[in-house]
Amino acid sequence: MLTSIPGVESWKFGTSSGDGDVKSFPLSCKGFDLVLSIQGCLAPFDASSLNDSTRKTLTLNLPSEWDGPLADMDAALLDVVGAKSEMFFGEKLTPDQIMGRYKAISRKTAEFPRNLRVKLSEGVRPTRYWDAQRTRVDAPAHHAGMTISAVVHLRGLWTSANAFGLVCDAQDLMILEAPAVECPF
């Protein structure tokens, strides 16, 4: 597992798959999956989805040491996608067009912690949950207020006619601290 982000220039973008307008390009680096281990995140909200889908998105507030690496990754990704825009979009795009289409998985706003949006899955590759003693546990009913260490998989790059971004799956979540819930009776 990587505790930093390898340079985007070293990423390998696989052959596109997908029908219709949305394409997916699997990612790897030196023959391995791009997996990041991020310690001590806070889940400020519960996981949510559009249209009650089983695939939900969880927002994690990251420790400040991830600000630089994720900002650097975004900048390098914009450069690489711009240089290969004909492969990804079928046409040469300007840097402004690339920037306008990018849907970042992380965002830093003012003095607030950087947020990372990860996908939770129950399907083929379900998100696994662990307690602080490294014992496998069931997924919690709610995530809001939890302190979590996350292993995330940067699985691929998706593109559509007007947008692109990374697919970031929560592979494993270790629940370090959960808010106390009082019995309502």
Chain-wise SSE layout:
Layout lengths: L10 E3 L9 E7 L4 E10 L12 E6 L5 H17 L1 H5 L5 H7 L4 E2 L7 E6 L7 E4 L4 E2 L8 E14 L4 E14 L8
Parallel strand pairs: 7-10
Antiparallel strand pairs: 1-2, 2-9, 3-9, 4-6, 5-6, 7-8, 9-10
User: Which regions have little confidence, pLDDT < 50, spanning 5+ residues?
Assistant: none
Order of helices and strands: EEEEHHHEEEEEE
Assign an overall shape.
globular
For the record, the count of structural domains works out to 1
Strand content: 35-45%
Number of strands: 10
Helix content: 10-25%
What is the CATH homology-level superfamily? Nucleic acid-binding proteins
Number of continuous helical runs = 3
Can you put this structure into words, describing what you see?
The chain has 185 residues and is an alpha+beta fold. The chain has a single domain, classed as OB fold (Dihydrolipoamide Acetyltransferase, E2P), CATH 2.40.50. The longest helix is centred in the middle third of the chain and has 17 residues. The chain is globular, with a radius of gyration of 17 Å. The model has no long low-confidence stretch (mean pLDDT 91).
Short précis:
The protein has one domain (8-177): Nucleic acid-binding proteins (OB fold (Dihydrolipoamide Acetyltransferase, E2P)). 16% of the residues lie in helices and 37% in strands.
Sum up the structure in keywords:
185 residues, alpha+beta, OB fold (Dihydrolipoamide Acetyltransferase, E2P), 3 helices, 16% helix, 37% strand
